[in-house]
From TrEMBL:
The gene is ispD. Its EC number is 2.7.7.60. InterPro entries: IspD, IspD/TarI, IspD/TarI_cytidylyltransf_bact, ISPD_synthase_CS, Nucleotide-diphossugar_trans. Catalyzes the formation of 4-diphosphocytidyl-2-C-methyl-D-erythritol from CTP and 2-C-methyl-D-erythritol 4-phosphate (MEP). Pathway: Isoprenoid biosynthesis; isopentenyl diphosphate biosynthesis via DXP pathway; isopentenyl diphosphate from 1-deoxy-D-xylulose 5-phosphate: step 2/6. GO terms for biological process: isopentenyl diphosphate biosynthetic process, methylerythritol 4-phosphate pathway. Keywords: Isoprene biosynthesis, Nucleotidyltransferase, Transferase. HAMAP family: IspD. This is 2-C-methyl-D-erythritol 4-phosphate cytidylyltransferase.
Length: 227
């Protein structure tokens, strides 16, 4: 099943605190951005990569893509002030239907087998996301006090990619814009249409590199994969 992918890469990496876009930080000598791009560049089912980029990073990203011989066409669109705006800028450039994946450039460990399952489910269901069952006990806390212990068996931590029929994602983004709704993921915009979203079980190591300690986890994941 072929698909297109939007990679939001236009953040500033505040929580990483590296003084630059965290996607430029290296794991085993290769920038995080390139690790993620390679997954999709090497996947023959991936037709196009659309990268949302902060204009100040554009030249450095372009140089890295050339240096690391990413052969697939990568088009760049300017990022927005929020992740959702960056993705909408990319989505607006897509005029055909089919399947679109949205995947954080900061999650370099996504596996082909999970992309395949997601696109397969999306073909039938229209929308599918990847996640893992919650491991910790979850509680609701207000003002420093526990107000509720939430039943864990129905809770999942949500990752990317998230996959959609392109026409459905257009509709979801148009409605979010009209309603000034800002979600923390793309599926939440589709849920607002009343459209079901399927959950596909992924891997606990599909981490998003967010804070400095994630770099240690990421190096460990890479080492394990190279054994
Ligand atoms: N992103 C984006 N446009 C934004 C904000 C984020 O394209 N305005 C991208 C990031 O580059 C990242 C993904 O969305 O690949 C997930 O965001 P996050 O992990 O929050 O990255 P940052 O926003 O860069 O980090 P922080 O929130 O710590 O500043
Ligand atoms: Mg952010």
């Amino acid at each position: 099943m072929t698909y297109k992918v939007i990679l939001p890469a236009a953040g500033s990496g505040k929580r990483m605190g590296a003084g630059k876009n965290k996607l430029l930080l290296e794991l085993e000598g290769v920038p995080i951005l390139i690790h993620t791009l390679k997954v999709f560049a090497d996947d023959e089912d991936c037709e196009t990569i659309i990268l949302a980029v902060n204009p100040q990073d554009e030249k450095e990203f372009t140089d890295l893509i050339n240096k690391h011989h990413i052969e697939k066409s990568v088009s760049m669109v300017p990022g927005g002030s929020e992740r959702q705006h960056s993705i909408y800028n990319a989505l607006k450039t897509i005029k055909t239907d089919g399947i679109i994946l949205v995947h954080d450039a900061a999650r370099p460990f996504i596996k082909k087998e999970h992309i395949l399952r997601l696109t397969g489910v999306t073909e039938e269901a229209g929308a599918a996301i990847i996640g893992v069952p919650a491991k910790d006990t979850m509680k609701k806390v207000m003002g420093g006090t526990v107000t509720e212990t939430v039943e864990r068996s129905s809770l999942w931590a949500v990752h990317t990619p998230q996959a959609f029929r392109i026409s459905l994602l257009h509709e979801a983004y148009e409605k979010a814009e009209i309603d000034s709704f800002l979600g923390t993921d793309d599926a939440s915009l589709v849920e607002r249409l009343g459209h079901p979203v399927a959950m596909v079980e992924g891997d606990y190591d599909n981490i998003k590199i967010t804070t400095p300690e994630d770099l240690f986890f990421a190096e460990a994941i890479l080492k394990k994969r190279n054994i």
